[in-house]
């Protein structure tokens, strides 16, 4: 178990060093694309109903959650989630990051 832990730590460290330049570029692009924070933070419900925090690059305009009710009537999915085709809250970079339709 000790060997596995050491290999995991070394692998994670090397991986983080390798992807850091890409993450820094994406962070700069998010900041340049639209006003607001670089990261989006949210509480989600996980297995067994336990809450956990997510942190991801922001792909929508700041305050997009507050605009959700206004767009709900345009949603194509209403039971299991919320989705609007051509959602105006998605930023240009966010469209690319989320692999959504190009803007």
In short:
This protein has 103 residues and is an alpha+beta fold.
Please explain how this structure is put together:
- It is a single chain.
- With 103 residues, the chain is α+β, with helices and mostly antiparallel strands.
- The chain has one domain (2-97).
- It is 41% helix and 14% strand.
- It contains three helices and two strands; from the N terminus they run H-E-E-H-H.
- The chain has helices at 2-33, 68-71, 92-97, and strands at 39-45, 51-57.
- A two-stranded antiparallel sheet has the order 1-2.
- Strand 1 (39-45) and strand 2 (51-57) form a beta hairpin.
- The longest helix has 32 residues, at 2-33.
Map the helices and strands.
Layout: H1 2-33, E1 39-45, E2 51-57, H2 68-71, H3 92-97
Antiparallel strand pairs: 1-2
Order of helices and strands: HEEHH
The count of domains is: 1
Biggest sheet: strands, sense, closure?
2 strands, antiparallel
Please give the order of strands in the largest beta sheet: 1-2
User: How many beta strands in the DSSP annotation?
Assistant: 2
Amount of helix: 40-55%
| Beta-strand content estimate | 5-15%
- Structural class per helix/strand content? alpha+beta
Distance between the termini: 49 Å
SS summary, helix count: 3
Estimated radius of gyration: 18 Å
The residue ranges in which pLDDT falls below 50 over 5 or more consecutive positions are none
